[in-house]
Every structure is written in C-alpha cells, then in structure tokens.
Amino acid sequence: HALDQNSSDPHLPLQWPDGLVLVGKEDDIKNSQRITAKVNGREVVVFYHEGKFHALDSRCYHEGGPLNLGEIEDIAGQPCIVCPWHKYVITLETGEGLYEGINPLEPSPTPRWQSKGVKQRIHKVTVNNGNVYVSPPDLSVSFDSDYFADKYKNNGDLAVKKKSNSQAAE
Ligand code: FES
Q: What are the Rieske domain coordinates in residue numbering (predicted)?
C-alpha cells in the first residue's frame, strides 16, 4: 500500500515491486514539458517532446552540465538536447553524442552530423493510468554519463544516508 501512504505528497517517488519509479503525472509533465526526478538515487530528466516522453541522466556526459536546462533542437532529423554548458548535442531517443564532422577526402567537404555512439544513459519510460514511471537503470552496462550521475548522487539521498551512518569518509 505504498501508494496510499505517500499519496499526500506528490513529490515523493514511489517504488513499485517491479522497480518502476513514479516520476509524475502524465498531464503535469505534458504541461511543463520537462521535470527532474530521482531514480535509484540518480538525477534523471524527463522530457515531453512532440508527443513522446524521453528520460535521460540529467548530468551531461561531458562535464556534468545540467541537461534539464538545455534547449531541444531538431538536428539531422532527430530531437536532441543541447547542453547549456558547452553545447554538446545528445539525441533524446538514444542518448548518442552527435558531432559535426568533415571528411577531408570528399571532393567538396561538407560538415555532416555524425554519432560518437551512446554516451548519455537513457531510461525507459512507462505511462500507465495517467502516471509516468521510469525504469531503474541496468548497471551491467555502463555509459559515460554514469560518472556524473554517481558524482551528483552525493547531493541527494545517499548523502543523507552517509551522514546518519557517522562513518562518512569525507
Ligand atoms: S558539460 Fe555538457 S557540453 Fe560540456
């Protein structure tokens, strides 16, 4: 009955038996277009863009910039978040880092968007009954953004646990 206990506080994420974490109401996120939430201690940003929900680690894989404050742009036919710190471009759908490169061997080299591969961890979003859930990360696979997700965890739930433990190492 976790739902009953916490229903008075809409900010408390609810953990479901299958690990899905409630991050908000479908209507609220559609209105605000983006929210941040804690999923298993890590900061995640959920975007609603052109009829779809996307969840990514909120800290940019480059140096930890706040992607929740970035602009969404369509680049090479894909919706991307542009990091506000150094303008790295990350696809919302796959978490790929894109860069504009030139092939000097072409007769008239033109810059083209290319992928560096998946750099930012994306998270599965489930919408059910007007609620939006994010699946917990599969940590058997790692991504560059994990480094900053771990680093910024210290500002959140884990830091609180550490203090109460009285053996905080730092
Ligand atoms: S921190 Fe995001 S581009 Fe540098």
A: 21-134
How is residue 56 annotated by DSSP? E
Distance from the CA of 88 to the center of ligand 1, in angstroms? Answer: 6
Chain segment 85-117, per-residue pLDDT in tens: 999 999 999 999 999 998 888 898 899 999 999
- Contact 70 CB / ligand 1 (< 6 Å): no
CA of 169: how far to CAs of 71, 156, 158, 159, 160, in Å? 38, 16, 13, 11, 13
- DSSP assigned state of 40: T
> Cβ(97)–Cβ(75) under 8 Å?
no
pTM greater than 0.85 (yes/no)? no
CATH class of 2-159: mainly beta
Q: 68-77 burial by CB neighbour count: b if 16+ within 10 A, else e? A: bebebeeeee
Q: From the CA of 83, how far away is ligand 1's center (Å)?
A: 6
